[in-house]
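Lab notebook, bench 4. We co-purified these components, and the gel suggests they stay together. Before we commit to crystallization screens, I want a quick structural picture of the whole thing.
Request: model the full complex, all chains together.
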Amino acid sequence: MSTEVIKVTINNKDIQVPKGARLIEVCRDNGFDIPSFCYYSDLALQASCRMCLVRIDKMPKLQTSCTIACTDGMVVQTQTEEIEKAQRAMVEFLLANHPLDCPVCDRGGECELQEMAFDWGGLEERFTEKKNYHAEKYLSPMVANDPQRCILCKRCTRVCDEWMGEDAIEAGGRGANTVIGTYGGWLDCSQCGNCIEVCPTGTLLDGTYRHQTRPWELAQTVSTCTYCSDGCQMSLGSRGGELMRIVARDRYVNGLNGEFLCIKGRFGHPFVNHEARLRTPMIRHQKGGKLIPATWDEAIKHIATKLDDVADRQGRNAVGVIGSPRLTNEALYVLKKFATELVGTENYSVTDSVNLKPFFSNLSAPLATHRDIRHAKTILLIGGEPEELQPLTGKQIRQAVRNGGAKLIIFNSVPIRLREQATQFLHLRPGTEAAAILALASDADDALAAGKLGLEAAELETARATISGTVGDLVIMFAGDIGAAAQIVLAQLAHSLKADDRRVLFHPLPLYNNSVGAIDMGMHDGSMNVAEMLDACGKEIRALYVAGSFLPEQLQGRENSLAQLDFVVVQELFETDTTSFADVVLPAASFAEVDGTFTNNDGFVQRVRQSIPPVNQSQADWMITDALARELGLEFGFGLAASAVFNEIAETLPAYAGLRYPVIKDESQPVQVKHQLAAAKDISTEHAALRKEVEQIDETSQKVFGTPRVGHELFKIRTLTDKVAQFHLLAGGNPRPESVNISPLYQITVG
Amino acid sequence: MFIGAIGCEPLQLARVHLENSRSLEVYRRNGGYQAIKKVLASMSPEDVINEVKKSALRGRGGAGFPTGLKWSFVPKDSPKPKYVVCNADESEPGTFKDRYLMERDPHMLIEGMLIAAYALGAKVNYIYTRGEYRYLIDIMDQALAEARAAGLLGHRISGTEFSCEIYTHTGAGAYICGEETALLSSLEGMRGHPRMKPPFPAVSGLYASPTVVNNVETLTAVPDIIKLGGEAYQKLGTEKSGGTKVWSVSGHVNRPGVYELPMGYDDMEKFIMEDCGGIAAGRQLKAVIPGGSSVYIMPANSIIGKDVRMDYEGLVAGGSSVGSGGFIVMDETVDIFESTKNLTEFYKHESCGWCTPCREGTDWLVKIFKRIDSGGGRADDPQLMLDLCDNIEGKSFCPLGDAAAWPIQSAVKRFPEDFAKHLQVNDDTDLEGN
Amino acid sequence: MSRQLTKIQPLSQPVQMPEAAATFSPEVEAEIDAHLAKYPVARSAILPLMFIVQRERGYLDPAGILYLAHKLALRVTDIWEVATFYSMIQTEPVGKYHIQICKTLSCKILGEPEITRHVCNKLGIKPGETTADGRFTVSMVECLGSCGTAPMFQINFDYHENLTPEKVDHILDSLA
Ligand SMILES: Cc1cc2nc3c(=O)[nH]c(=O)nc-3n(C[C@H](O)[C@H](O)[C@H](O)COP(=O)(O)O)c2cc1C
Ligand code: SF4
Ligand code: FES
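Here is the predicted assembly.
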């Protein structure tokens, strides 16, 4: 849109707008309600519902305001008898074949058609003919479908294509026989459920929530997703202490993700009320013995005695403390405080798969927000697979390219699906990302880098030319386990890549909902990392206090480490590999049961809000640590308020200075923490180290071909997703069941 | 079936009766490929467009848009390739002229397309033919092969700088693909949904490149315009509608067929009663749909003794329009309720389903027709139909919605008695309809 | 009501494998390639290719759909959305002789009902049906551009015009 301001007159009111502004938006911004179904911001225009008709001077017919770009002097009427008749007519047409049985429809109460019928429908029902009939069915374990209710606005097909790049759902048939569906009637896709979300009617429905509650029975709580580092905002719908569903519907929540969520965010929540949740604290009184239920008092006392004992006899550093990047900032902050101020140990860490501290300590430009990504001019993606691991970032990249014309340069050893959008795909040998970073830092080592990467030097040249030709924002994204030297060189790139007309922004792609918060809270500041700590078990380290669990990959090859310890405490939702070594297991509350904050990969610190009371006897992680500290004789003074912890975070950490819960309460205005920017510094040592690292890369590794299957990461069965029956169907290849008329779960519960 | 010109020298139909009229040889012997020769030898693209402008040629596909003007909208400086697409989808009920033009004189279409391609700078061009006309695609392919072999098509045509290819393409049964933007969607391998205008095809059409879509008969007029000169061609017709027009005549006339008439032919009554041999079996004329199913139906009393001139302005004055020139004559045995039901079923079947009013409106209207037909009519049904038509007309995404409304609107208003007799006196109908 | 399932058994069913794609003779492949060569974008050839698959396989069957998806680098759902839009593309089997009777206005008023009745009586089926031996399918279709020579039907791609019951007998008998 241009910056030129023009005048339009709407209902006799003169309005200044940027030239080319979309009329429907201008009308709405100025308080003139325009009904619409098919129009959806930032999706391809459709103009098919014909609801948004307006009268424009000098134009022969009524015009669809969703398609009109404002021009100077345009005179518009939006509220005349003629327009109202047309709009009533469209609602009447849409209702003609639509069943009028809202009371049995899952969308009843939050259906746009229902609302429109109340606002615009005629009182008299003139359609007295037989309605066209289609049977209800399932399109996948996640998506139920009632085709009769479809008004063919095609928001679903557009989000599937434009947001997800999957194009899995389409319209078939013609005319009044048009239906939304797929070949074979089964949806083979990443099951994000965004089609359900954007559906204005009860045509596409949450198959996991069918006929559970009426929407108005649900208490809606705005919170942050507990899966990946994108930090999507969502509304948790609960009833009677049970989390029933999660949506991102704009009537409840307006976060950085709009109405977008991925399969995990939307459908991955049934672990919360799962019967396998730990019920009470449990103590294993003797190694090899059973875990026996205990009271909180008993358990806390027991732990305090044991930890005291180890510290006394073996020294403070013999007690190790481990957090999880899934915990809230509050929990991690209290945990770190517990480790450093109370225990006084240097041995603490966090079970993240990568440690981005070197990157964050040398940051030379701010983090890109998801909005920045959508409007970026060039996006550089090194490693990773956002479409599976940070799906919102994946969507933003796709839209930046498709709707915004951004250039996308991908350095990856795997031909990921996002490659379809790439301007340039540089297919690396596995494990050579460091060489790519070396090449981006300067062209001096191109021959070396290209050789290791398995590329032509000219390809590096092309990528650099695209970067240096960028006018506007350049967003650098990276993922994976990148060494410290490479992280530092990368973090300093902004100094050399920025220009007067080019802003550089970073977007790291860690894996967990609070990976970034864990760095901010200082959980990576201990003297050992997780692997080193595991290796030290039974040696320097004699006791561990673990909030969360180790990743299976971290325990791999170290299966016996935990058995070497004198004492292990684990705070968890479920029994895991880690709890099987625990002497005391404490039931922790999930994200749905606590207050707190997560910091996402934009650097946004966003609220986690309690939606239901803690399940069973569980308690918030920070409260457990706090109770333990109290037992050990140190009163942190947080009382029962997570906000008190956050206040202390804000007072202690400069990046969080000035923040309070009220300041970050509006999810539509997320607040970015102020990560310290490092001045340009001499990084020749790191550069040399990186070169050396690159020189040592093995040149014989073979390139990987074959695009990874949709869902190969998203559908993985992990501790949480294991508790969602539908994920097992997906992980099993999402076969089309013989009958699509009943819940696909019959395949794993019956027979 | 009659094929020939009345009231003028045949232009479009000049060769249709010659033996082997489809062959390159016969075409050439009878003035064929002289126009393109002249164009390549002595005319600039602008000259061609000007000549077409002067001819007052209006698009013969139904919309009647001035062809020269349409051509002039194509941006000269666009770096993108340009395309000429011939619309041979001919699916408007009552229309079959393009079929005979292609069947009898395929080289005339090729020559017309070559001239258009030259004027617009198009290198690759397509003839989109409805799928049912498979035999015409074969005929066109053969003619194209002949032309190619003779150096009239392909690289450096007739030794000039001008290179141009023409390919045939098949539709697969969808009336909406005659609408130019839907045609382009279909030609790109998509569902045949119309696209938003603007951008118009002239700016962003096939593969988002500048594209001109023209009807077969529009393109076959072009060689004669070049040969005669734009002005002379225009003078064959009227000031605003130049040249001749080919009409497809069907229904209850003694001599159905393909008729070439000068634009402005006087008058419709004479045309029906004399040229077409009058109404079959000595019955009375009841109604005419003069321009394909999508135009207003004309009752006999608006034709008989009314001097209806057969051109764009004349037919509008007569209460209808030229449309595609599909001239359907109905005698007194036809029940206009039945004929309108038949056409409404057509539009329901052919609605692409994109937009609400057309998709739902045609479905609803057909249900009403069926209910009335099975004895469940109500006194206010005609009024309901008119209101539904009003709710479709002018609100649909593309003109198909309007086209579905017009036959009903005109029939209900002009033949109320035919509707009335189907409506039960007793208003006590079952709510389920049908 | 708790939504949690007591027991989640791992899935025993194997991943559904796509059916094998259709294969064609080198001549047919050459014909297909000739169509592809006409367009700058492969997808443009979708309708011509569908007709070829239909001709070769009787209708656009699942294997044919899969073939087209591979050939045009599209998803099967992309083929489906296009196939179901066009009335000439058959995604269900049709008879060897597909009799498509035009039912639109000009044919209708010039004797289509009689022709339809005659065809259906003779074959013993209703419109939309296929004879038991799979030889004939009767469909009612919209205007085929033969209004001047009404009534008419098309059998596969052949036009039969100015029909009379006698003519219909003659045509059908010659096919039988
Ligand atoms: C529903 C609909 C169907 C149409 N069908 C045809 C058709 O079959 N043949 C045709 O030439 N034009 C048809 N048209 C008109 C085309 O949209 C377009 O105006 C025409 O091809 C332009 O060519 P012309 O300027 O030479 O007439 C149709 C339009 C509509 C709205
Ligand atoms: S009016 Fe609407 S539904 Fe009808 S054919 Fe046009 S776009 Fe399709
Ligand atoms: S919102 Fe404009 S037509 Fe649907």
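The radius of gyration of chain C is 21 Å. Worth comparing against the SEC data before the next meeting. The mean pLDDT of chain C is 90.
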